[in-house]
Design brief:
By secondary structure, the chain is α/β, with parallel strands linked by helices. The chain contains nine helices and 16 strands. The protein folds into two domains: 197 residues, Quinone Oxidoreductase, Chain A, domain 1, CATH 3.90.180.10; 125 residues, NAD(P)-binding Rossmann-like Domain (Rossmann fold). α4 crosses α8. It is globular, with a radius of gyration of 19 Å. The protein binds zinc ion (ZN) (2 copies).
Length: 330
């Protein structure tokens, strides 16, 4: 029997630690995947901090790229050796009212990769084939990893923001650096907001086509049609509302956020809306990968070895990353 290596999170507040386990066996609808790259997402930090419900001990990681090593008998369409991507949405029930209405992202009995089932901070992972994606050839494994959550859930957030031309992005990390390119390709104007004094982040945003980049404490030169918030900071919600025009939307794209401070009703009035984005559907994935191909999106990544997972998480926590961190287990 073979073995696998993984960085395991035993519980909230603990550092990840290397474990060796027997190689898992793929169930009838599952793929056994050799992981070549796994993106590091802010959600992984929320798991470490115990801010979202998870099944501990857990192997985090839900932006997985790898190759199929073995598969169950009900995995039509996949072949041994094929490159696949494994996203956050790991499984849905298929029968709840949300699943039946095409809102599987809101499923009552979901499983989430690297949260309720083991993820990709590991040499191997088992995934439900029905939720895996083939990936565009244009990207290397490392380049493709951030597409699987930062890109994909960012894409869902962008669609919920409507088709307004002037778009604000709060927090210019892994998701925003992809979405800025998607929105620019759609001929929108993108306004990037970073932490005050983050000159490097603002320069990075301009490099990727943003027409303006500045501190989240300042107002952009024009009113925005919509704003997407990727930073987990509740105070950004009223800040974004104040720079969005009447009828505009503020979309909160993260899974967890600090409390939203009270604000005057006048800032919401005028049919402005605040909404959140939860998870993804498989249709989001299909449409996103098509857009990514057409728009010539590129991703900017920093690589870490599997043993360096804690270092990658720390760098993300401290905002000391350009683009997305990616763990390479081999
Ligand atoms: Zn369901
Ligand atoms: Zn994520």
């Amino acid at each position: 029997m073979g073995q696998m290596r993984a960085m395991q999170l035993d519980g909230p507040g603990k550092p990840l630690r290397m474990v060796i386990r027997p190689l898992p066996v793929a169930g009838s609808a599952e793929l056994l995947i050799e992981v070549t790259a796994c993106g590091v997402c802010r959600t992984d930090l929320h798991l470490v901090d115990g801010e979202i419900p998870a099944h501990y001990p857990i192997i985090p990681g839900h932006e997985i790229v790898g190759h199929v090593l073995a598969m169950g008998e009900r995995t039509a369409g996949f072949t041994i050796g094929q490159r696949v991507g494994v996203p956050w949405l790991g499984h849905t029930c298929g029968i709840c009212s949300f699943c039946r209405k095409g809102q599987e992202n809101l499923c009552d009995q979901p499983e989430f990769t690297g949260c309720t089932r083991d993820g990709g901070y590991a040499s191997h992972v088992v995934a439900d084939a029905r939720y895996c994606f083939p990936l565009p050839d244009r990207f290397t494994d490392v380049e493709a990893a951030p597409l699987l959550c930062a890109g994909l859930i960012g894409w869902r957030a962008l669609r919920l923001a409507g088709d307004g031309r002037r778009l604000g992005l709060y927090g210019f990390g892994a998701a925003a650096h992809i979405l800025a390119q998607v929105a620019t390709a759609q001929e929108r104007e993108v306004y990037a907001f970073t932490r005050a004094g983050d000159e490097d982040g603002q320069a990075f945003a301009r490099l990727l086509g943003c027409v303006w980049a500045g501190s989240s404490e300042t107002a952009p030169p024009v009113m925005l049609d919509a704003a997407l918030i990727f930073a987990p900071i509740g105070a950004l919600v009223p800040a974004a509302l104040r720079v969005v025009r009447k009828g505009g939307r503020v979309v909160c794209a993260g899974i967890h956020m600090s409390d939203i401070p009270a604000f005057p009703y006048a800032d919401l009035w005028g049919e402005r809306a605040i909404l959140s984005v939860a998870n993804l559907t498989r249709e989001d994935g299909a449409s996103f990968f098509e857009v990514v191909e057409k728009a010539g999106i590129r991703t900017v990544t920093e690589r870490f070895a599997l043993e360096q997972a804690n270092e990658a998480l720390l760098r993300l926590r401290e905002g000391r990353l350009t683009g997305a961190a990616v763990i390479c287990p081999c």
